[in-house]
Amino acid sequence: MEKQRKIEIYDTTLRDGAQGESIFFTLHDQMKIAEKLDGFGFDFIEGGWPGSNPKAEEFFRIMADRLLKHSKLVAFGSTRRKNLSVEKDPYIRALVNSGTDVIVIFGKSWDLHVRDVLRISLEENLRLIEDSIKFLKSKGKTVFFDAEHFFDGYKENPEYALKTLLVAQQSGAERLVLCDTNGGTLPFEIEEMIRKIVGLVGVPVGIHAHNDSGTAVANSIAAVRAGAVHVQGTVNGIGERCGNADLTAVIPILQIKMGFKCLEEDHLEQLTSLSRYVYEIANIIPPGNQPFVGYSAFAHKGGVHIDAVSKNPRTYEHIHPEKVGNQRRILVSELSGKSTILQKLGKYHLEMRPEIIKKILDRVGELEKRGYQFEAAEASFELMVRKMLGLYQEPFHVEGFRVIVEERDSGIVAEATVKIKVEEKTEYTVAEGNGPVNALDNALRKALIPFYPYLSGLKLTDYKVRILHPEKATGAITRVLIESMDENETWGTIGLSENIIEASWEALVDSFKYKVLKDKKKF
User: Fold this and answer.
1) C-alpha to C-alpha distance for 379 and 483, rounded to whole angstroms
2) Across-strand partners of 108?
3) pLDDT over 50 (residue 143)
4) How far is 223 from 135, CA to CA, in rounded Å?
5) Mean pLDDT for the stretch of residues 364-374
6) CA dihedral for 78, 82, 84, 87, sign (positive or negative)
7) What is the DSSP letter of 79?
8) How far is it, in rounded angstroms, from Cα 63 to Cα 98?
9) Which alpha helices (DSSP H) does 17-121 contain, by range?
10) 103 with 137: CB under 8 angstroms?
11) Residue 390 region, left (φ>0) first, then alpha (ψ -120 to 50), else beta?
12) What's the sign of the alpha-carbon dihedral 81, 85, 86, 90?
C-alpha cells in the first residue's frame, strides 16, 4: 500500500444526511455546519440540490458571497429530464446558477431503473448523461458523475453499467463515483468490482455507500483498498433509511490504521468535537457506542480491563483516544476495584494511600447498596470524591426549592421556586415548565446564569427514572439519571430518593455544579 496517498473526503451531511428520518436543518443550521466542515478541512461539501426547494436556493445564494478556506462547495443534481433539452431544463439551469465551481450529476447505471423508473431506452439514458455533463462542462464547471445504483446494475448488466461510466468520462466527468444506493452490496463484492473499474477507466474513482446492510464503512474502506481515491459520506453516518457511510469512522481508519492522508493531524484530533457538534445541531442524542467518537468508545468497566489499561492502554484500546479528540473513561460500578479508583484519582496527582482508596471504595459500596449507580454518573462520583479529599469548592448553596403543579385553562403547568446563595448574594427565582423537573431546571438557570453565564451552554440530553424495589409500590425508592452536555463534553449525574422530585433535583443540581466547576477550571 502506498503510504500517505491522498484520499479526497466528500461530505454530504447537508444533502444526503438531511434526508434521514427526523432530521431537519434550518438555513441557519446549514450555514453553521458548512462553516464547521470547512474549518475541519474536508475537500468537498455538498450543499444540496439547487432548484429543488427555496431553502436550497437561498443557501447557495448566501454561500456565493462567503469564501471557504479549505473546502470546495458542491451543487448536486440529476441529469436532464427525458422530454427536455439540456438548455431548457430548469434544474440544470439552477445548477449552473448555483455559484459553485463543482457540480455533481447523478444518473442511472442500473438498466432496471432506466426501464422501470425513467421508462426510456438504454441508449436514451446514455444521451441524458452525455448531454448534461457536456453542457455543464461548456459552462466552465468541474463535473463529478454519481453512478446511481452502480453495483446493483453491474451485477445484472455489467456491460451497460460500465457503458454509463465510459460515456460520463468521455463527456468530461472528472470523478466517477460508484454508488451503492440500496446499501445491499458487501465489502468483498465492492472490492472486486472497484478493482475492475479502476483498471478500465481513466479518471479517479470514488465510492458512495449506504448502510442498509451495516457495511457502509467497510464498503468505503474496501473501495479505497481497490483503488478508489474519493470517499463520500456524512458526519455520524446520518442519512436516509439506515444512513450513509460514517465519516467519523472512515477517516480515522484510513488515516490512522491504513496510512492514507485524509486530513491534517490537528483536524483529526477535533473529530469527536465535530461529531457532537452535528448531533447538537440535529438535536440527536449521541449514541454512546459509536466507534471512535462515542462517549463509551474508550470506556472501561470491568476490573480486569481497568487494571490492564492502567499498565498499558494498548491492552484494551485499539488507538489512543486523543488521536480523535476522545478520552478514556473509567467507570465506577459494582465490578470496579482498586484499579478503578487509582485510575479515577490519577488526575489529582496525590499520593494515594491505601486508607484513602479503602475509604472511597467503602463509600461507593455503601451508596451502591442504597441504590446509587455511578457507572453512568461520573460527574456525581467526581463531586463526591473531591468532597472526600477536601478538594471541593462549593459554587452555590441551595437554601430551598418548591414545586407546584396545577391545572389552568391552558393545561397542566408546573411552577418552581428556587432559593440559591452564591457567595454572599441570595437569588430567589420563579419559573414555569411543562413539568416539575423542567420548571426546576428553568428556575435554577434563571438564578445562576447571572453569576455563571456559561451555564447557558448547558443542555440536558437525557432523563431516566428507575424504580427500585417496586414491591413497595408508591413508597419505592426512585433513582434518576440525568445526562448533560455542552460543546465539549457529556456527563452524567444521579439522584436517589423516595420522592421523585427530590431525586431529580439532586441529579439536576449535581449537573449544574459540575458544569460550573469545570468551566471555572476547578477540575
Assistant:
1) 10
2) 148
3) yes
4) 30
5) 80
6) positive
7) P
8) 9
9) 27-40, 54-63, 90-96, 111-113
10) no
11) left
12) negative
Show the cell assigned to 382. 467526581
Grid coordinates in use for 173?
Answer: 466527468
In contact, 215 and 245? CB cutoff 8 Å: no
Which stretches of 139-179 are DSSP H helices? Answer: 150-156, 158-171
- What is the rounded distance in angstroms from the CA atom of residue 240 to the CA atom of residue 244? 8
Residue in this structure with the C-alpha cell 470506556, named with its chain if needed: 299
Instruction: Outline which parts of the chain fall under CATH 3.20.20.70.
Output: 8-282
pTM > 0.85: no
Q: One-letter amino acid identity for 320?
A: H
The mean-pLDDT minimum among 143-147, 167-171, 269-273, 341-345 falls in 341-345
Name beta bridge partners: 9.
231
The pLDDT value given to residue 313: 82
- % residues pLDDT > 70 (the chain): 94
Burial tier of 512 (Cβ tally within 10 Å: 0-12, 13-18, 19+): buried
CA–CA gap between residue 98 and residue 93 (Å, rounded) = 9
Neighbouring residues of 229: CB distance < 8 A, sequence distance ≥ 6: 5, 6, 7, 8, 204, 205, 206
Hey, what CATH topology would domain 8-282 get?
TIM Barrel (3.20.20)
Give the end-to-end CA distance of the chain in Å, rounded to a whole number.
44
CB 188 within 8 A of CB 221: no
DSSP 321: G
Instruction: Identify the CA nearest to 249 among candidates 226, 230, 268.
Output: 268
Rounded distance between C-alpha atoms, residue 133 and residue 80, angstroms: 9
Q: Which residues contact 332 (CB under 8 A, 6 or more apart)?
A: 340, 341, 344, 364, 374, 375, 378, 381
**DSSP 8-state code for residue 287:** P
Grid coordinates belonging to 91: 434544474
Give DSSP secondary structure letters for 183-211: S---HHHHHHHHHHHHHH-SS-EEEEEB-
Distance between CA 108 and CA 166 in Å, rounded? 13
CA angle 299, 304, 305 (to 5 degrees): 30
**The residue count for the chain:** 523
